[in-house]
Amino acid sequence: DYLRDNLSRKKEQLVMRWPRPFHFSIVDEVDSVLIDEGRNPLLISGEDNREAARYPVAAKVADLLIEGAHYTVELKGNNIDLTEDGVTYAEMILGTNDLWDENDPWARFVTNALKAKEFYRRDVQYIVRNGKALIINELTGRVEPKRRWSDGIHQAVEAKEGLKIQQADSVIVAQITYQSLFKLYPKLSGMTGTAKTEEKEFLKMFKMPVIEVPTNLPNIRVDLPIQAFATLRGKWQYVREEVESMFQLGRPVLVGTTSVESSEYLSDLLKSRNIPHNVLNARPKYAAREAEIIAQAGRKHAITISTNMAGRGTDIILGGNPKMLAKEIVEDNVLPFLSHDTPDVETEGESTSHKGLSKIKLGPSSLALLAKAAIMAKYVHKSESNEWSFQKAKSAVMESIEMSNTIGLEKLQERVAEVTEMYPLCDAIALAYATVLKDCEIHCFDEGAEVKTLGGLHVIGTSLHESRRIDNQLRGRAGRQGDPGSTRFMVSLQDEMFRKFNLDTEWAVRLISRITDGEDIAIESNAVVKQLLGLQINAEKYYFGIRKNLVEFDEVLEVQRKHIYSLRQVILSGDSESCSEQIFQYMQAVVDEIILGNVDPQKPPKTWDLAKLLDELASLGGNLLTETFKETQEEDLQSSLEQILRYGSVEVDNFVLPNMPVPPNSFRGIRKRTSSAMRWFAMCVDDTSKKGRYTNIVNLLRKYFGDFLIATYLEVLQESRHHDAYIRGIEEGSTSEDT
C-alpha cells in the first residue's frame, strides 16, 4: 500500500491515511519479519517485453555448458563465473562474437540460465503448479504465489522448466526494505519466542531492547545431543529408524525437513517400512489440509513429516485437537449426501491419513444426531433442482459449525425441536457437531494423558538451518505449556548449508572414521558438533552482514524517497495554489542549475560562459523562449551585467536586466507576487550554492530568468482559456510523473 500510494496519480487512488499513515506497530513473529525477511526488499515492478524470447534459448545453452569446464559455482554468494572456454563455447552456440555486445546482449541471460540450473531446484526453491513456477519461502515452507524473483531469475527458471514466460523482464519502479518500512512507525514493538539470540541486532538496527518473559509453566522438554553423519544416506537411515522406534512406543513424532524434496524422500522411506504418516509441505494436496494434519500431529502413533510450515506459530496439542477432529467427523458423515462432486485435490487437498491412530468412540446420541443430519442432507440434495458443488456443501457445513460455536448446545436443541416449514439442515448439523465435540474432548483428554506418560511429542530436525532461531522454533513445537517432550537434530556433512559455507568436510570425515568404522554411524562427538555449530554462527554473521549492507544502502535511498514521496503527497492532497507553487519551484530549480553551472560568483562576469548559458536557457521553453531570446547575444547579457555592477541598489520587486527582453506581465495578484518574493528570499539564504564577491549578481540573474520562465508559462495558460480544474489535472499529472 505504501509503495502503491506513492505511485498513484490521483488522490482517489490513495488507500493509506495521509499525511500520517504510520502510528504504532505490533509485529507478530517479529524476528521472522524484520530479520529473516530483512534480506529481501519489497519491490513493485513494471514489465519490459523486449527480451522475453532470449530466455528459452539461454536455457538450452546452459544445458550444454558443463560445471568446471565452462563455468565455476560459488554456493555461498550464489555466483556463477564463465571460464574462457565457457565464453567461447557459448558464443559459438549463439553465433555471436561477443556475449557482452550492447546491441546483442547475451551474457546476462546465459548467466541467469546457469543460476537457474545450479541454485534454483524444483521442489526446494519452487514448485510447478498449473504451468507456473511458484516460489517456496525457505523460512516458512509456504508457497508465495504473488512473489517473483527479480533480475530475470524467475524468467530463467520458467524457461528451464519449459513453461510459458508469465512476465517479461521486470523493471523495478518502487522498492523499500522491511527495516526501512517499519522504521517509519513512530512506535515499533513485536513478539516472538526466539529473539534472544538476535538481541544485539534488534538494538542496533531498530533501537528495540529485547525483554524475556518467563514461561507460564516450567519447560521440561529434553533436547538430546546433535548427531552428525558423514553421508546423507546414513542420516536418513537413522531418521527412519528413530521414527520407527518412536512409532512402536506410540509417541507422536514431528520430523522437520528443509524442502519439499526432502520431506517426500523421507515419506518414501517410511512407506517402504509400512509406517503410516502424514506429509505437510507446499504441494497443494498437502497444504490445503494443513489444519487437519496439525490437529492429528499430537495423537498417539501420529507421524508427521513437515517442512518449516509447522516450525513457527504452530500449537500441536497432545492427544489431538478436539474441534478439528469433530469437524472432520461431521464432514465425513454429511458431505457425501450433500454433494456428489469429487473434491478437487488442488484446492481441498488429499484426505488426511488416520492409519495407526485410535478410533474415536462416539456415544449413541452423537451417532443418532449424525445419522439425522445425514438424512436431512440427503433430503435437501434430492429436493433441490440444482446439484450442490462440493465447495457449496462444505461452506454450508462450516457455517453450521460456526453457528454451533456461537449459540451453544441448549439453544441448538430448542431450535431443532421447533416445528418449521423448512427442514432445519444447518441446525441439525450444528447440533450433531456440538454433541460429537463433547465425545472428541473426552477422547483427546484421555489420549493426551497417555501420550504425556509416554514422553510427549518427539521432534526430529533433519538439518541445521542458517540461523539458530529457526532451529529453536522447531524445537519449540515440543514441550509446550509445560508438557513433556524431546527433540533431536540429525545432520549430515553433505547438507547444503555445510557445502555452502565451505566446511572442511574431509577433516570431519577423517575424524568420524577414527571414531567409528562406518560412515553411516551416528556421532555425538563434542569436537564435531562444536565445529558444526560454529559454522552455523558464521552463517548468521554472514547474513547479518547482508542485512546490514542492505540497510546502509537503503538509508541513502531513504533520504530521497522520503523527500519525493512527501512531495507527491503535497501535490496529490494539496489545493491548486500549492500544486502551482511546486511547479514554480521546479522551474526555478532548473534555471538555477543551468546558471550555477555556467557562472562563478568568485570571478567577474566577463569570465562566465554566457553563450552556453543563453543556449541552455533558450532550449527550456521550446519555441517560446527561443523566439524571445533569438536576438540576444552574449555581448548584450555581458553589457547588462556590467551596468548592474555600477548600480548602487536595485528594486527587486519588478526587476528586469537592463537592455534585455521584458518578461510577460503575469505576476498579477498578491499570491503570485508573494510567490516571486519568497523565491528571492530563498536565493538570498541559500547555503548550498557557492559564495563570492559576485553572489548578488548571480542571484539577480537567477531571479530574472526564473521569473521569465514562470511568467511565460502563466501567459500560455491564460491564453489557452482552459478551465482551472483542467489545468490542475495537467499540473498534478506532470509533477507526479516527475517524482
From TrEMBL:
Membrane topology summary: Peripheral membrane protein
Class of the enzyme per the UniProt entry, highest EC level: translocase
Domain named SecA family profile: residues: 1-522
GO biological process: intracellular protein transport; protein import; protein targeting
Keyword entries, A-Z: ATP-binding, Membrane, Nucleotide-binding, Protein transport, Translocase, Translocation, Transport
EC number: 7.4.2.4
Compartment(s): Membrane
Name the record gives this protein: chloroplast protein-transporting ATPase
Species: Aegilops tauschii subsp. strangulata
Source taxonomy: Eukaryota, Viridiplantae, Streptophyta, Embryophyta, Tracheophyta
